[in-house]
Structure formats: C-alpha cells, structure tokens
C-alpha cells in the first residue's frame, strides 16, 4: 500500500476589499474597517487604485510620492509601504507566500481588485447605466440608479489627495461626473 504525500496547504481565498475614494479614504477587508497608517502609504494605495489594475513602474511611484524631496533610499521606503499595504489588505496571507492583491509586476506594482471594489468605479458604472436608462425612456430606473450612485458620495472625490498631480485630473473628472449625475437626476425626476 502506497502512502499519500501530504498536500501543501491551499492559499487562502483573496479577501473581499472595498476602497472608498468618494470622500475620505476608507478601506474594508472582508467587511471590516482597516486603518491604513501613514500619509504616504495611503497615497500609494490611492495611486494604485486609480490605475484600475494596471502596473505602475516603481520610478513613477517614487516621483509621484516624493515630487520634491526624495528620501535617501526611496526604493527601500517604497518596499516598506508595499509591505504595510500587503499586510493590511491580505491579513490572512501566509508569510512569504505570493500576494494576490498588491502584486509586483513589470518592475512596479499593481493592485488587483474586483471591478466593483472602489466606490468611484461603482459610481461611474451606475451613472452609465442610468444614462442608458434615460436614453431608453426608463426614467424610474434611471432615477433609482442615480440616487444609489450619488449616495456613495461622502465628501469631495479623493479627499486629501486631489491636490497631488497624479490625482487632480481624476478628482476633477469624478466631480464633473457627479454634477452630471445630479443634473440627470433632476431631469429624470421631472
């Protein structure tokens, strides 16, 4: 009789992550609030979320996080921020196992989130659905979707980050889309 070899433990299922950018930054992992400590660690998280899964080269992240005065070893500082984010976003990940959310890729980093992980993404999708509903003369559905979309807002878009060069355009775009949603809601409610 042959003995079976023990199977290596299966990696845990990636956690469910929600990142709210339509107001002050809020992060939830598996439904629980998670505090992301440190201004630059939070900035790195927001910077990666804005890329929607696309990798950002480390030199670009370094120049974005430290536009004026870089630390002595910015790559070492970046590694410590990445380490802190990985611990916060994947608390059950086995040490030294491959991360599933914040991954190293193409000499940089990418954040692999579900398509509805960020409130800004859900807002944008709901506004697009509402616009289609208005175009198809489904006003009640459009109003419902717009109300739900606008309810996601808790303050200014990218609050605390909008003045950074890498965030200002996206912040302005989201605020413009919010105004459009409010205008469409007024139209649909007539």
UniProtKB/TrEMBL annotation:
Keyword Translocase: no
GO molecular function (one): DNA binding
Coiled-coil regions listed in the entry: none
Biological-process GO terms, alphabetical: phosphorelay signal transduction system; regulation of DNA-templated transcription
PROSITE patterns: OMPR_PHOB (PS51755)
DNA-binding positions: 8-113
Domain OmpR/PhoB-type: 8-113
Keywords, sorted A to Z: DNA-binding, Transcription, Transcription regulation, Two-component regulatory system
InterPro entries in the cross-refs: AfsR-DnrI-RedD_regulator, BTAD, OmpR/PhoB-type_DNA-bd, Sig_transdc_resp-reg_C-effctor, TPR-like_helical_dom_sf, WH-like_DNA-bd_sf
Pfam families with a match to the protein in the record: BTAD (PF03704)
Top-level taxonomic group: Bacteria
Similarity comment: Belongs to the AfsR/DnrI/RedD regulatory family.
Protein name, as recorded: OmpR/PhoB-type domain-containing protein
Organism field: Mangrovactinospora gilvigrisea
